[in-house]
Amino acid sequence: MASYTLHIQYVDRPAEIKTFSQPRVSVGREGADISLFDSQVSGQHGEFVLGETGLQYVDVGSTNGSFTLQGNRIAKLDMTAGTSVRLGNSVITLKTLDIGRVPKKGGTVIAGEGMPVPSLGGAGGPAGGPPGAPGLAYAETGYMPQVDPSALAAGQVPGMPVAPGAPPEHMETMPAGQQAFDPNQAAAAPPTAPGGPGQEQPANPGALQPAAAPSIGEQLGQVDQKLAAQGIGTENIKGALTSAWTLHQGELVPAAMIIGGVTIPAALVGLVFGLIPVVGPVLAGLVSLVAGLALGFVCIPAATQLLMNRHLGQPVEWLPTIQAQIPNLKTIVPSFLVAGLIAGIGTVLLIAPGIILGCFIGSIYFAEDKRIVDITKRNIELALKEPVPLIVKFIIPALALGVVFVLVSYLFGLIWAPLGGLLLAVLEAVALPFMLSLSITQYFQVRQKHEGGDPLADARPKLALNRPQVAVTAATPPA
């Protein structure tokens, strides 16, 4: 019976080795034949399909996708011994594959592990076999040896008796007038001097031809594979941005209301004060200062808590989330102020240090109860686990949004600057929650990948209970 053995590397528990023989084996987060208990894996993520000719992995439409170890996203993958597929943060590797097949007469088959195949040597046959009969040997590579048909037609293969004047069964005869190639005769023949008078050099179709240069697309693919091995390939970046967008999309309106509830009114007031000479710009500056403080110490923490609860599967309402920040200002203000200033200094010096110092500030504050300088220490500890991928994942959307903001400021600066400020406030209300979503999804991914355990389960009570008065929209079951 055909069977195969898989090595399953889980996220937070020891690896296992399992053997299967059924035609289809499902893989998913929970309740599948192979349950990975990985939050990055869909409920029904993929399946292994065992056929007559081999084993194939098939992605059944998962959200986060299935990948090779090089980071290439796959829909189907033919599995051979040693082939691995990555689902979320889990890796499944095929160790052995035993396909039981009955060879057809005259056909070539793939030999399973330990399957005897005919040996062409004859002398190595098993004891007690008839003289000159083909021996049995165990295939080392798993494939039948290949033999030149012309040699078989000339009866030059030992151990394969050929009746005089008759070709072997299932082999085509040589065309009339064509002589089988004799390697001994070819070796004894003197070499022909190239370029001799009146001599035309014969074509050598068997000579090795120089390999064609890879196309630009192939070269780019090779580069992308090397980058994927470092965690910064196309699929890695796409996966990170897709996860962030999925979270952001689920709370687009509430998160935009939290941020825009400060930025948009401040822009409108600034637009009105801009019409007042002398005093107007001063008043507009004061309004911008107050709006900045409210944004940094109330709105950003509230939006972070809103998005984290959505990511943890316990969505909350936006207005109670804002109200819940007010009693906690005595801890929020010094924590976000110090950690934000340190990250800001790093960003001014160079963008990359700013990411290492502050990409997870809000997530660490809420999920781990870190405060002030401890937030920065923990941020550095997590970011240095995979610094280059994180820097790339944050820089790409930041630069893209920066270009949009600069273009809007420039274009409306030519028309009417205050109107440009109002449009920027609207854009900020949408863009800032996306960057917070990216921070949250990457925070949990890094923790789960490098520290194991279940950081999502650890964070749920802290997000839903330790931040008082946050109303959960899901219905509370009766006591």
Tell me what the structure shows.
The protein is of the alpha+beta class and 479 residues long. Among the domains are: 3-96, Sandwich (Tumour Suppressor Smad4), CATH 2.60.200.20; 231-464, no CATH class. It is built from 14 helices and 13 strands. Helix 8 (329-349) packs antiparallel against helix 9. The longest helix has 35 residues, at 417-451. The radius of gyration is 34 Å and the shape is elongated. The two termini are 53 Å apart. Residues 102-189, 191-203 and 465-479 have low confidence and may be disordered.
Outline of the structure:
The protein is α+β, with helices and mostly antiparallel strands. About 45% of the residues lie in helices and about 10% in strands. It has a six-stranded antiparallel sheet with strand order 2-1-11-10-7-8, with no helix packed on it. Strands 4-3-5-6-9 form a five-stranded mixed sheet, with no helix packed on it. It has a two-stranded antiparallel ribbon with strand order 12-13.
